[in-house]
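User: Could you check the structure of this?
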Amino acid sequence: MLKLAVMVSGGGTNLQAILDAMDAGKITNAQIVRVISNSTKAYALERAKRAGIATACITRKQYPEPEQFDQALLALLQESGADLVVLAGCLVVIPQCVVDAFPNRIINIHPALIPSFCGTGYYGLKVHEQALARGVRVTGATVHFVDGGTDTGPIILQKAVEVKQDDTPEVLQRRVMEQAEWVILPQAIHLIANGKVRVEDGRVILMA
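Assistant: Sure, the predicted structure tokens are below.
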């Protein structure tokens, strides 16, 4: 059974998608052991509590030095016993010490087709604003492993979503979530939990 620690910053819709997929049998051999947020106001924590999942909140403001936060987050993740860390709408930059402790064991969902509209500064609604400003016809979402860069780790899954001419950033954001994010994040967890994913030479190999 793959143990998951899910990190969240806001409403937790991706967390809910994971929970729903587990209930529907679309994710097997996995369980969430901890939901961690960097905000005490994150509604995702309430979703976790309703599902009977242990929660924790950790913020940089609690620690006078950045390194202290980094080590506290690492200790929290290790204490949870998690095999895989899932960034499900998490706005915390993952410290290098955590990346090193969980090599190819941290995954992130990004609301665009990497390498488009990704990297430093591309998060949340900003991604969709830039996609519309550039006039792309297709966008989507990407699940990837986390490495030392920003959105540079090996890509696991991607799903394309149509951009419509009358889209606003908010409308496009919702479509990407519903048609892509909430689909491929659970799929990626299921594949990993069932031994269907390996990384070779910086690329993901999906096994039948």
